[in-house]
Amino acid sequence: MMSVSNAQETPSIQICRIMRPDDANIVGNVHGGTILKMIEEAGCIIGTRHCNTQSGDRCLAALARVERTDFLHPMFIGEVAHVSAEITYTSKHSVEVQVNVLAENIVTGAKKVTNKATLWYVPISLQNVDKIIEVPPIEYSSPEREEAGKKRYEAQKLERLEDKVRNGEIIMSVSLPEPFTVVCSQSSLIHLVGPSDCTLHGFVHGGVTMKLMDEVAGIVAARHCKTNIVTASVDAINFHRKIKKGCVITVSGRMTFTSNKSMEIEVFVDADPLVEAEKGKYRAVTAFFTYISLDKENKPLPVPPLKLEGEEEQKRFEEGKARYLQNKAKRLADKERQQ
Known about the structure:
Largest sheet: 7 strands, antiparallel
Number of strands: 14
Strand content: 25-35%
Order of helices and strands: EEHEEEEEHHEHEEEEEEH
């Protein structure tokens, strides 16, 4: 739900939304990222709306900076978040939006302020993303408020310039692994298992795990080929142990074998129970994915040969080659049987 104030002096809006299980961690605390996302959405709406009140190019308010934001009180599942946004200052090319977040317990009626944030937006032309649009001025309730806003504007502008210079000085060249090696393309993904990932009994859906595994395998294949890639097949996926809600899972993938037109990626899932840390990390799922490389017309491309380093990689390559030849022979036998 969203309400709007059209007062010329201080344009404002309010967004309301009930917090659901997907918005929170396993104990019901709403994620900070969920709140930050709602804050930014409110700021973007009011900034974009204000900057399009004048004639000329249509534009979108692009986020340029968020000032320090404190999380004053936790928000919980079932509470209603009231996100109020107000434009408090405008310069020639930027908009300051101040946002307050209020959590309401709809059972008891209790309310508490959870966040206060200040965001700066720059209006970007929809016709030319490199063009910054001039911002329509707002009317201030007093000269003091305008002067205070100008001081905030000058302070954040100086901090942004200092930060840009500081970050520019620390950029360093990084030595990359040799192309087409196992280490060059190996990838991993870390995921906190939430309520929406699980069955009614609190264990991860197999489909959720398989989707994450395929994503990692796809990243490995894309890094190796630098082309469009698609899943060709998946060998037997072994679910060794259940993964409970609240675990942190690490999904890792590495290239094990390449033929002329395909590549095999080994993927394994390790689970780390945060709440029951004494149980330790364990290997939960393993599988081999096969990918092929495609050109712009979706026709198969040759796969760059895998450069092997060490006996272990050579052993995994030979094992992958054996699986490849076995699967190829099986496909040929099936084809002959169907004829």
